[in-house]
Design goal:
17 helices; elongated
Length: 402
């Protein structure tokens, strides 16, 4: 079992890092039941993994002076952790405990948790566990009076809560999926679905492990030794604990990462055709200098610099633009069934393609044409906040950016 010990501590370190990362939110919003529950859940999961590691089990038993004292301690912490999972899901769905129905359900979970923990402590006190078993307490004492009932109560509660949590997460995830079919998906929706999916996977892992623990205890009653099966799957405890931390952090930090990292990276990739078009073989004569972001800039800032440079160079091409080219491409796109936004982008893409291919012309088009072209750009900018991306995608679709 020694090979499992680093896994417990590593998973605890991941959850501890998540807890520290969210500590400022606890300070700012300590009155929020949801925020408090998230921190409590991370704390219980981290603490449970640390206390379940055999070296810690031995140390706690020696410190307390009670043989196998770690067993009811760890079991109680994990029951409280399971309760916190249900409470958090109720808060997420019910508006941070503002609704009376949510508060009633939360009260039921807490009372049930307290009753189970009290029963675990009482049954342990009634049982006899003189031999120190830091690694195989469950299977060694599976047939011992009162300890047998304590183990059954703990495992059945653990599996029941894991099933309830998994079902709730899956149902909520499907509800979000059905809703976003009719409505545009937001960063919050995507992050929440990912977090719920991770929690479903973690819950299924907890269910499987709990059933395996029950199977090994049942085998012990039948006079068989299935401890090896239990040992083989013990590392999955740390995996499930880590997944819970990830599942909780994704909805909290996912929207910010999507808006500030993922979406800017997608826009930067989408702008490549337009970037190549307006740059040409090199900055055109009279165009503004290339704006380079600082080395420490994140994707959001890099995108801002890139869009500013593209916009400035597009304006530099406007004197060479012909509005008739834009109008013709716009009408052709409308005839082909494009929506208004796509047709406008297609027209501008065709106009700037023609202007970029004729950078070196000696006789610019009529002044009226370039003025109309500039007005068309300004009008499109007012209607489409992502105009540059739309133009670039039109270029990529037409194959004109090469």
């Amino acid at each position: 079992m020694a090979h499992q010990e680093p896994n417990y501590y590593l998973a605890a370190a991941v959850l501890g890092a998540a807890l520290l990362a969210k500590a400022p939110a606890l300070v700012r919003e300590w009155r929020s039941p949801t925020v408090r529950t998230v921190h409590l859940l991370l704390f219980l999961s981290c603490t449970g993994l640390i206390l379940a590691s055999p070296p810690t089990v031995t140390a706690v038993n020696r410190f307390s002076g009670i043989s196998n004292f770690s067993a009811p301690l760890v079991h109680s912490i994990l029951i409280a952790y399971s309760c916190a999972c249900l409470v958090l899901l109720d808060y997420w769905r019910g508006g941070s405990g503002e609704h009376a129905r949510t508060r009633r359900r939360v009260r039921v979970w807490k009372i049930g948790c307290a009753v189970v923990i009290a029963a675990i402590v009482g049954l342990f006190a009634l049982g006899e566990v003189p031999v120190e078993r830091p690694r195989d307490f469950d299977t060694y004492y599976a047939a011992t009076p009162f300890i047998r009932e304590m183990l059954l109560l703990y495992l059945l509660t653990h599996v029941t809560v894991a099933v309830a949590t998994t079902v709730m997460c899956r149902k909520w995830m499907l509800d979000i999926g059905r809703r976003t079919v009719r409505e545009p998906k937001t960063a919050v929706d995507r992050s929440l679905r990912i977090g719920l999916l991770v929690l479903v996977i973690a819950g299924m892992g907890n269910i499987v492990f709990g059933l395996l623990r029950l199977a090994t205890i049942g085998a012990r009653w039948a006079g068989r030794d299935w401890a090896a099966l239990n040992d083989a799957f013990s590392p999955f405890i740390s995996v499930s604990g880590t997944l819970v931390g990830v599942g909780l952090l994704v909805p909290a930090y996912g929207p910010g990462l999507i808006d500030r990292v993922w979406n800017p990276l997608l826009d930067l990739a989408a702008l490549r055709p337009l970037w190549r078009l307006v740059c040409g073989p090199g900055p055109a004569a009279g165009n503004p200098a290339l704006l380079r972001p600082p080395w420490y800039a994140g994707p959001e800032q890099v995108l801002l610099y890139r869009m500013t440079t593209i916009h400035d160079w597009m304006l530099g091409l406007c004197p060479s633009c012909e509005d008739e080219v834009r109008e013709l491409a716009y009408r052709r796109a409308k005839q082909n069934g494009a929506v208004e936004r796509e047709a406008v982008a297609a027209g501008l893409a065709a106009m700037f393609t023609a202007a970029a291919s004729d950078r070196a012309r000696t006789s610019p088009p009529e002044t009226g044409q370039s003025v109309l072209a500039m007005a068309a750009v300004r009008s499109a900018e007012a209607e489409d906040r992502d105009l540059l991306v739309s133009i670039s995608r039109a270029l990529a679709g037409s194959g004109r950016s090469a």
